[in-house]
Amino acid sequence: MDYSKFKKALQLLEEQNNRLNSISNDYEEWVNIALKESIIQRFETCWDCLWKILKRYLEHEIGLAEVPNGPKPLLRLADENYLLPSPISKWIEYNRVRIATSHDYSGEKAADALEIIDEFVEDSIDLYKTLSKEDWE
Asked: How many CA atoms lie within 13 A of 11 on its CB side?
């Protein structure tokens, strides 16, 4: 299976998140806002790649014939097949945050998304390593 799109999306998210975590408050406010907006967009892209590659993995690598087309049921199947590196409740929360960001970019929704990014990146890297059987670079 080709994991390159998921890997690239995750690398870009990790890179932007590391930038945000390392910058000081000396930057102009618009730089911080732009970086946060970029991270949220990268999170959305990464999440969409993640659940679609998970669907293909369940079909092609696990061999499941009936794989639903949506994140929540896929997460349950992934959990049943011991693919998720952390409790399913965290993955359901990532999905909830992703859905919320696609419908509302208010400050509260953006703050919710930014709050989970560190854990999401860590969990997604672990999932990538499980699925691809590759080390993270």
From this structure: 10
* Predicted local confidence at residue 27, as pLDDT: 67
Amino acid of residue 89: S
pTM for this prediction: 0.88
SS3 call for 3: coil
> How far is the C-alpha of 43 from the C-alpha of 96, rounded, in Å?
12
Average pLDDT of span 15-38 = 80
Cβ neighbours, 10 Å, residue 86: 14
Is the backbone of residue 66 left (phi > 0), alpha (psi -120 to 50) or beta?
A: beta
Task: List the CATH number of the domain containing 45.
Answer: 1.20.120.330
At position 134, the amino acid (one-letter code) is E
Range of the domain at 126: 4-132
